[in-house]
């Protein structure tokens, strides 16, 4: 017997860790999506920077369907061709010599932090265990990664938390310098904070962290879960900044919607992780490897990466024109197609209200805290979809102002 599914069923059946929108998407193509009622939405959320090539991308479908007809899963007692090809693609495209595959950004950051601790313990002793992270960061929801993320609202209910993690102020090198010492095993940083408000790093800040890590034999970890795989207009944001980490975590866009994560590192650091030191049942399965391999082939091209930069300018130009008229935002910031519109002080805390109105007008946007409306659309979103989505967003912003900003 078939069953009719409604949004109310979420409230009845699911553990309530999310508060999803009142509509249920059922079909999508490119950057356009339709709900159960047939209403159309332009997708500027991109599955939180995941759907880098849009919905139902025909090339990714072909890759998935071809692999699905051959081999789905074997477990980590065996390897497979798609994941080995993907590893070589990532090595050839980046600073890395070695790759570890998992299923998500949180898992990738967990692996990166474990690697850093083990490298320090093996080479310098157990006292070298300190981790320096940054306030308002986000690195995942495991106990280790949520502790590294400098947002107490996400971690305080789960104490006691893993010890020896301290938090500096993002983009404040002096603050970081005060915490980094010879007992520091790792510094973990986002080249651009996503959940923390779409805040790009200052180049001198990242360069300074690189120098501090070198001086104190600490592992520099770049969390590129949200900024990676073309999001900033470079394949990875470290390339944009010209600062190379020791370990890089990647996920989200890597699978184009299929769950996969990874850490990239060099031979020097990878060799401390011997057989049995870490693992995952599903990580690097053939389905994920095949899809992610095709994602990289399509994104790591001059045409796609230049297209991200062109779309960035289109968004900035149109959002600036909107804001010149409505005076709603005090700053529009970001890199590539990860953008944040920061609300004026008089509208502080109202980003969620704007995103709700945007959905009513037929455009899906994100928030990054209470004060920032965030955009992370597909890297190949069309000019027509950008224009239509921003027209709908403008209507939502006008309604927000007309309805008393409530």
UniProtKB/TrEMBL annotation:
MF GO annotations: identical protein binding; N2-acetyl-L-ornithine:2-oxoglutarate 5-aminotransferase activity; pyridoxal phosphate binding; succinyldiaminopimelate transaminase activity
What pathway, per the record? Amino-acid biosynthesis; L-arginine biosynthesis; N(2)-acetyl-L-ornithine from L-glutamate: step 4/4; Amino-acid biosynthesis; L-lysine biosynthesis via DAP pathway; LL-2,6-diaminopimelate from (S)-tetrahydrodipicolinate (succinylase route): step 2/3
Quick one: which residues bind pyridoxal 5'-phosphate? 105-106, 138, 223-226, 281
> Which Gene3D superfamilies does the annotation name?
Aspartate Aminotransferase, domain 1 (3.90.1150.10), Type I PLP-dependent aspartate aminotransferase-like (Major domain) (3.40.640.10)
Query: Per UniProt, where does N(2)-acetyl-L-ornithine bind?
Result: 141, 280
Keyword Transferase among record annotations: yes
Q: Name the CDD domains on file.
A: OAT_like (cd00610)
**What is the catalytic activity of this protein?**
N-succinyl-(2S,6S)-2,6-diaminopimelate + 2-oxoglutarate = (S)-2-succinylamino-6-oxoheptanedioate + L-glutamate; N(2)-acetyl-L-ornithine + 2-oxoglutarate = N-acetyl-L-glutamate 5-semialdehyde + L-glutamate
Q: Where in the cell is it found?
A: Cytoplasm
Predominantly, its location class is cytoplasm
- UniProt keyword Metal-binding, yes or no: no
Q: Which InterPro entries does the entry link to?
A: Ac/SucOrn_transaminase_bac, AcOrn/SuccOrn_fam, Aminotrans_3, Aminotrans_3_PPA_site, Class-III_PLP-dep_AT, PyrdxlP-dep_Trfase, PyrdxlP-dep_Trfase_major, PyrdxlP-dep_Trfase_small
Q: What cofactor does its activity depend on?
A: pyridoxal 5'-phosphate
Keywords attached to this entry: Amino-acid biosynthesis, Aminotransferase, Arginine biosynthesis, Cytoplasm, Lysine biosynthesis, Pyridoxal phosphate, Transferase
Can you tell me which family this protein belongs to? Belongs to the class-III pyridoxal-phosphate-dependent aminotransferase family. ArgD subfamily.
Give the quaternary structure.
Homodimer.
Describe the task this protein carries out.
Answer: Involved in both the arginine and lysine biosynthetic pathways.
- According to UniProt, the name of this protein is Acetylornithine/succinyldiaminopimelate aminotransferase
- Annotated organism of origin: Franconibacter pulveris
**What is the gene called?**
argD
């Amino acid at each position: 017997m078939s069953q009719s599914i409604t949004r109310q069923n979420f409230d009845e059946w699911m553990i309530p860790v999310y508060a999803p929108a009142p509509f249920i998407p059922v079909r999508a193509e490119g950057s356009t999506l339709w709900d159960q009622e047939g209403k159309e939405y332009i997708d500027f959320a991109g599955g939180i920077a995941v759907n880098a090539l849009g919905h139902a991308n025909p090339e990714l479908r072909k890759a998935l369907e071809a692999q699905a007809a051959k081999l789905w899963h074997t477990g980590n007692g065996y390897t497979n061709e798609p994941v080995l090809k993907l590893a070589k693609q990532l090595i050839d495209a980046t600073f890395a010599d070695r790759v570890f595959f998992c299923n998500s950004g949180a898992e990738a950051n967990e692996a990166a932090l474990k690697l850093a601790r083990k490298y320090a313990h093996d080479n310098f002793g157990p006292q070298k265990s300190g981790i320096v992270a940054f306030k308002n960061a986000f690195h995942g929801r495991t106990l280790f990664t949520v502790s590294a993320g400098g947002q107490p609202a996400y971690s305080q209910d789960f104490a006691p938390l893993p010890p020896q993690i301290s938090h500096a102020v993002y983009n404040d090198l002096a603050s970081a310098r005060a915490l980094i010492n010879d007992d520091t095993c790792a510094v973990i940083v986002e080249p651009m904070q996503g959940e923390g408000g779409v805040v790009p790093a200052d180049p001198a800040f990242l360069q300074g962290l690189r120098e501090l890590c070198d001086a104190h034999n600490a592992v520099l970890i770049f969390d590129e879960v949200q900024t990676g795989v073309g999001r900033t207009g470079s394949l990875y944001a470290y390339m944009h900044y010209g600062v190379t980490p020791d370990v890089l975590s990647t996920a989200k866009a890597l699978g184009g919607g299929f769950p996969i994560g990874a850490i990239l590192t060099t031979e020097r650091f990878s060799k401390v992780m011997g057989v049995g030191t870490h693992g995952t049942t599903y990580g690097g399965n053939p389905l994920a490897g095949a899809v992610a391999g095709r994602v990289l082939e399509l994104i790591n091209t001059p045409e796609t990466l230049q297209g991200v930069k062109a779309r960035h300018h289109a968004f900035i130009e149109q959002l600036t024109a909107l804001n010149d008229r409505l005076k709603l935002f005090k700053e529009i910031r970001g890199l590539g197609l990860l953008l944040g519109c920061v609300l004026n002080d008089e509208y502080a805390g109202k980003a969620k209200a704007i995103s709700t109105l945007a959905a009513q007008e037929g455009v899906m946007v994100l928030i990054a805290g209470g004060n920032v409306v965030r955009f992370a659309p597909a890297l190949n979103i069309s000019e027509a979809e950008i224009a239509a989505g921003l027209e709908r967003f403008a209507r939502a912003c006008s309604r927000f102002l007309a309805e008393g900003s409530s």
